[in-house]
Design goal:
Number of domains: 1
Number of strands: 7
CATH superfamily: YjeF N-terminal domain
Largest sheet: 7 strands, parallel
Strand order of the largest sheet: 3-2-1-4-5-6-7
Bound molecules: ligand LZDS7PUF, potassium ion
Family: Belongs to the NnrE/AIBP family.
GO molecular function, one term: metal ion binding
Enzyme class: isomerase
Strand content: 15-25%
CATH topology: Rossmann fold
CATH class: Alpha Beta
Shape: globular
Helix content: 25-40%
CATH architecture: 3-Layer(aba) Sandwich
Radius of gyration: 15 Å
Organism: Roseinatronobacter ekhonensis
Oligomer: single chain
Protein name: NAD(P)H-hydrate epimerase
């Protein structure tokens, strides 16, 4: 998937920014398809240090433009974000909470989005703050809340479908992935952590 994405960008047929915008818009569209009654409300979006977090910034901007109250929780310093994610961070017209220094609270809103890690997860999630915020997402999902994972539930290996050894990981009721499903969506722990799987095209 990463190779497909890079090949498309390198060929000049599409930019990473366009892919990110389509990915974020695809998640919002899938959300409305899966929870049609939730037309507006309050959303919490957990945004990690890479382009998965970048998708989260796009989702935050689109929901906010549609009248949602949005709480963006960031992990990692904005200056360290990859270019496309940084661009979408800068487009946010709302305050963000630093997940490393803001104590997580039980979420009582309408929509929780896990945009912490996607296909770039390289090791178990061991950071205590990240684990605590993911736990809130997982508890919200378990309580029947609208919980969405962007591309892959954070902590789940996209190839094997296993939770990385010792990693924090959160369940979602809906996982929205891009272009093609990954083996991890169907294998091992995948189905339990992904919930319903939507595959959205982003023009690859
Ligand atoms: N597939 C597509 O067409 C599109 C995918 N998009 C989205 O992009 C992500 C992949 O983005 P990428 O930046 O490659 O990866 P992540 O966002 O998952 O995160 C990578 C960063 O996270 C750090 N990292 C990795 N594991 C950990 C950990 N356990 N704890 C802390 N930090 C971690 C990693 O750091 P390294 O030191 O490992 O380099 C990176 O900083 C994809 O999933 C989609 O959501 C495009 O936006 C749209 C098209
Ligand atoms: K994710």
């Amino acid at each position: 998937m990463r190779a497909v994405e890079m090949a498309a960008i390198d060929s000049g047929t599409v930019t990473g920014l366009a892919l990110m915008e389509r990915a974020g818009a695809g998640v919002v569209a899938s959300f409305h398809t899966n929870w049609p009654a939730l037309r507006s409300g309050s959303a919490r979006i957990l945004c990690g240090p890479g382009n998965n977090g970048g998708d989260g910034f796009v989702i935050a901007r689109l929901l906010h433009a549609n009248g949602w109250q949005v709480q963006v929780v960031t992990f990692g310093h904005p200056d360290q974000l990859p270019q496309d994610a940084r661009h979408n961070f800068n487009r946010l017209a709302m305050p963000v909470a630093d997940g490393a220094t803001t104590p997580p609270t039980q979420f009582d809103g309408d929509l929780s989005v896990d945009a912490m890690f996607g296909t770039g997860l390289t090791r178990p999630i061991s950071d205590p703050a990240m684990a605590s915020w993911l736990h809130c997402h997982d508890r919200f999902c378990a309580a029947g809340g609208a919980a969405i994972a962007v591309d892959i539930p954070s902590g789940l290996d996209a190839d094997s479908g296993r939770v990385l050894q010792g990693s924090a990981c959160a369940r979602s009721g809906l996982t929205v992935t891009f272009h093609r499903a990954k083996p991890g969506h169907y294998l091992a722990d995948g189905p339990e952590f992904c919930g319903t799987l939507h595959i959205v095209g982003i023009g690859l």
